Amino acid sequence: MSSTTDLPVQDISSEVLIEKYAKGGEQTPDELRERVARALAQAEKPAERAKWTAAFLEAQQRGFVPAGRIMSAAGTELSATLINCFVQPVGDSIATPEDGVPGIYTALTEAAETMRRGGGVGYDFSRIRPMGAWVGSTRSHASGPISYMRVFDRSCETVESAGSRRGAQMGVLRCDHPDIEAFIHAKDEGDLRNFNISIGVTDAFMEAVQADGMVELAHKAQPSAEQIEAGAYQRGDGQWVYRKVRARELWDQVMRSTYDHAEPGVLFLDRINADNNLHYCETIAATNPCAEQPLPPYGCCCLGSIDLTRFVRDPFSARPVFDEAGFAEVVAVATRMLDNVLDVTPWPLPAQAQEASNKRRVGLGFTGLGDALVMLNLRYDTQAARDMASHISEVMRDASYAASSDLAAERGSFPLFNADLYLSGGSFASRLPQGLKDKIRTQGLRNSHLLSIAPTGTISLAFADNASNGIEPAFSWTYTRKKRLPQTEGGGFKEYAVEDHAWRLYRHLFGADAPLSDAFVTALELSAADHASMVAAVAPYIDTSISKTVNVPADYPYEDFQNLYIQAWQSKLKGLATYRPNSVLGSVLSVTPEVKQPEPLRAEVDGTNQRLKVERLPQAVVASLRWPSRPDMPGGNPAWSYLIQHPHGDFALFIGELPLEGPDAGLFGRNLPFEVWVNGAEQPRGLSALAKTLSMDLRTNDAAWLRLKLDALATVAEERAFEMPMPPSGEKRLFPGVVAATAAVIRWRCEQLGALQEGGATPVVDAMFSRNEPRTGVSGTLAWAVDVDNPATNEQFTLTLKEVVLPTPDGGTVTRPCAMGFSGNYPKALDGLARLLSLDMRVMDPGWIAMKLRKLLNVGEPLGHFMAPVPSLNGERRQQVWPSTVAYVARLVIHRYAMLGILDEAGQPLTDMGLLQTPAPKLAAAAGTLQVQAGKPCPECGNATMIHKDGCDFCTACGYVGQCG
CA-to-CA distance for 197 and 311, rounded, in angstroms? Predict the structure, then answer.
C-alpha cells in the first residue's frame, strides 16, 4: 500500500498549481511536469531527448519536485532564470571594482537585475568600511554597511521579481566587523523588512565566548582621527582594530535579539569553509536567502526536492517500510535533471553563468521528512526517527554522488575538478565512502556540490499534497486557508481546507474518529533542542547546508533558548535560524483563537491625537487570586533565600512559601511560593517595589501568567552585563543586569516547587486584551507623559504611558494605558517594574492594575522621601511628602487612570468587572490545529500574523504561504 492510496486532490493544491506554476492551458500536475521534462531534456543529445523526457516525467511522478523557479518558467517563453538564488559580491567603494569585487552601486544594479529575473540574492557586507571610518578620497566619514543595506532593501522593495513577487535577500556581516552591534539590532524596530540577516561567526569568536575572552572588532579601512584618539590602533597584519569587546557580551546581544526579534541567524563560517568540497579554489562568506546554500561570489543554487512520503510502503501499519531502492533510482534521475538546468536556464549575469559553468553546483534534497517519519510510526523527537533520517540522507548522498560520477564519465567533470585536492583536506568529499572516492578518482565528478535541503513552500502544496516542508515536522495538521479573490470575482475571500498529507492519509485509511498514533507531533510541541538534534543527525550527509527554522512558541523560556546556537556550533552545524512570535514584528490584538475579520487592525485618528484601536472586545474573563493580600500566618512560614551577587554589592533574596493543600500537594506535601522580597543595604533602588508587585503575581492561580512576568524580566538590560553564580551548583551565568539575574533565581526556585508547570488554568492570561505591547503604525501615536524630579536622589526623568482605544459593550470606546516606560536619570530596576506593570495594564479588569498601583503607594525608601505636587483632577494645587520615587510614580499612573474615567483618585475602579469571579472554562484548541501567532503584516489578509516557518513566510490567520522553494 503506497502513501497516495485513492486520496482525492485537495482543492488548495489545484488552486496553487494553477495560480503559481501552470502556464497556458495547463490544469493538472502531469501537464506541467511534462512541460518541465521536455524543457530539461533539451540539454540531451537530440536522438535521446524523447527517452529522457519520459524518464524525467516519471521521476517527477514518483516524487521529484524541481524548485519553484524551474516549475514555473522551464519550457516557457519567459526570460526568467530557473535558478532560485544567488550570492552577489559587494565591495567597499561606491562604483570602482576592488580585487575583482564590484563597488556598492554596481553590486546594487547586478542584484536588481538578478531579482528582476526571478532570483533571490545573498550578500556579505563585511567589506564595507565601518561607520565613522575615514574616506580619504572625499575627506569625509563613512556611513557604514547598515546605511547601504537600507538602499538594497528599498531596491528589493521596488523591483518586481519575474513578474510576480518581491525578491528575497540575505544580509551577512562578520562577527568581528566594527559595526556588528548595529547589525545585530538593525531589525529590532522593523527596519530592513526585505532582508533576512545572519552573522558570520568564526571558531575563534565562539572559543572566546566559551572562554569569556575579548575579541577585536577590526577592518582594513583606516578609522577617523576621532576613532584613533578614542583608542583604535593598527595590527601587524595591517588591519585596524576599532575596539575590543567581551565576546560573551556580544553573544548575549545576539541571543536576546534573536529571542525577542527572530533575527539574526548565525552562519559558522569556519565550518562552512572547512567542509567545502572546493576549499582549494574558493572562500565562502554568505548564503542564499534561506541559508541552505553557502555560496561563493556569483554562486547559484539549482534546487530540487524529493517527496519522501512517496517511498513509504504500508504506512502506519505494524511494519511500514521505506523503499530505499526506489528512492535511489529517483535520486539518480533527479541529479541529471538538475545538471541539465544549468545548461538550459537563462542567466541574469555573465559572471553567474561562468561561475556555474566552472563548478556546476546543484542542490538536491528531500521534503516531507516529518510526514514520512509519522507514516513509519516514528516520532520526530526520538532517536529512532533521527536514525532513520540519517539513513535516508546517507542513501541520497551515495546515490547522487554515484550518479554525478557517471555523468562525468559521459559528459566530463566540472572544469575546476582536481581529484587529489577534491578528495582531501578534511572536506565533505574526503569523508565519502571509499568505494565512491575510488569511482570519482576513476571517472571524475560532474558537479562540485550535489546536496541541499531547502524549504519547499508552495511547491509542497501544489505537487506534494501539503507534505511537511523539507526537514521540518508538520506545523499543523489542518487549517483554513483564506484566499483573497480579485475584484472581477466580487472581491472578498474564499476559504479552503488545508490538510497535512500524513494526517489526511491516516484519516482516509482509518476513519475520521480514529485516535492519532503517538508519532503525530507538530513543530510547536517540540523543544528547540529536538529541532536542532534532527539537523545534527542529517547534516553529516549534506554537502552544502540545510534550511532549518527552529520555531518555538511565544512563551518559550529564554533559559531554554539562550544556548541554542552554541549547541548548534558544538554539533558542527553550518548555521541555524529561529522564530519566536514577537511584538516587534507585529501583535495580534484579539485573543480569539481565530482571526474572524481578515481586515488589518489600523490606527484611528481623532484630530490631533492618534491612538491604536482594538476592533474587537474579548470576553471579560478575570483572574482569581488565592489571596487578595498577604495571608495571615500567626505561626510564621518557611522562606527560601539566596545571595544575589552583583558588581555593586550583594543582597539577599527571599521567597516566602506555604504548604500546598489538597490533591495537588502529593504524598509528601509541596510548598507553594507566594511572595518575594529583598533585603540588604546594597540592593539596587527600586528592586523592592518590583518584588512587591511580583508577589501578587505569585498568588494567582495561573502559572502561565507567572511565566509571562518572569520572561518579561529576563531581558531587562542595564549599564553592563555581569556574571553571577546560579543554583544549585553555583555555575556562573551571564546576565544583562541585576533584574534579569534576580528573575532567573526566582524562576529556578519556582520551577523546583512546581509553580511553573504547564497545562493548568490560565485565568489572568485569558483576561488580557493583548499579550504583547500594541504596536503603532509608521505615523506613531501620542502618549501621556509627565516629568518626575526627586531632589533627594538626584533623579530627573519622564514617565510615559502608551494608550489604546478599546470598544465597550454599549458600543462606545474607552481609552486605556497599555504600556509604560521611563527615560532620563532613574534607577534601572524601574525598567523591570515598568515591564511588569505594562502587562498588568493589559488585563481587561481595571481592578487588577488598580490593586497593583495601590500597593505601591506605601513603598518607602531610606533617604528617598521628597516633596512633590499632588496630582488632582479639580486643579487643586498642594504638595506632600512622598515616601519614594516609586510611590510617586504609582500615584501619577493612578491619576492618569482617573483622568480617563477608569479609576478614582484613590485608585479604586469606577466600574468593577468582578476581580474575584471564577473564570469561565477555557476552550482548548484542537491538538495540531493552526493557532494565530503574532508576526509581520500578511500581504493577503493584512493581519499582523505572518511568521517565518520552515524557511518560508506563513500567515497563521489566513494560511498564506510565501513563494519559496
Answer: 36
Burial class (CB in 10 A: 0-12, 13-18, 19+), 454: buried
Given this model, what pLDDT does residue 126 score? Answer: 98
Describe the chain by its helix, strand, coil percentages, rounded to 5. 35, 20, 45
Which domains are assigned to the chain?
1-84+302-476+489-547 (3.20.70.20), 88-200+212-267 (no CATH), 639-762 (no CATH)
pLDDT tens sequence across 498-520: 999 999 999 999 998 999 999 99
Please name every residue paired with 768 in a beta bridge, in sequence order, or none if there are none: 843
Give the separation between CA 827 and CA 738, rounded to whole angstroms: 12
Active site residues: 288, 290, 292
Nearest CA among 716, 727, 718 for reference residue 752: 727
The set of cell numbers assigned to 513 is 474518529
Which cell numbers hold the place of 12? 488548495
Helix or strand (DSSP H, E) at 902: none
Rounded to whole angstroms, the Cα distance separating 857 from 872 reads 16
User: Maximum Cα–Cα distance for the chain, whole Å?
Assistant: 100
pLDDT at 369: 98
> What is the pLDDT, as a whole number, of residue 91?
97
Q: Give the residue among 820, 557, 565 at the shortest CA–CA distance from 711.
A: 557
Contacts of 937 (CB under 8 A, 6+ apart): 586, 600, 943, 944, 946
Rounded Cα gap, residues 153 and 944, in angstroms = 20
Q: Which of 85, 185, 962, 934 is nearest to 579 (CA)?
A: 934
CA–CA gap between residue 268 and residue 757 (Å, rounded): 36
What's the pLDDT at 916?
Answer: 28
Q: Are 763 and 701 in contact (CB under 8 A)?
A: yes
> Which pTM value belongs to this model?
0.69
Residues of the chain with pLDDT under 70: 1-5, 160-166, 487, 490-491, 582-629, 631, 660-670, 778, 808-811, 911-929, 934, 942-944, 950, 963-965
List the one residue out of 353, 366, 367, 339 whose CA is nearest residue 448.
339
Nearest alpha carbon to residue 501 among 532, 519, 474: 474
String of DSSP letters for 167-185: PPEEEEEETTSTTHHHHHT
Q: What is the pLDDT of residue 588?
A: 28
**Tens digit of each residue's pLDDT (9 = 90 or more) over 761-814:** 787 887 788 888 887 776 777 789 999 999 988 899 999 999 888 776 566 778
| Distance in angstroms (rounded) separating the CA atoms of residues 300 and 351 | 11
* Tally of CB atoms within 10 A around 810: 6
Q: How many CA atoms lie within 13 A of 232 on its CB side?
A: 23
Report d(CA 261, CA 251) in Å as an integer: 15
pLDDT value at position 593?
32
Identify the pLDDT of residue 622.
Answer: 39
Number of residues that this document lists for the chain: 965
State phi, psi for 154 to the nearest 5 degrees.
-70, -35
d(CA 185, CA 195): 13
Please report, as a single letter, which amino acid is at residue 42.
Answer: Q
Distance CA 200, CA 266 (A): 6
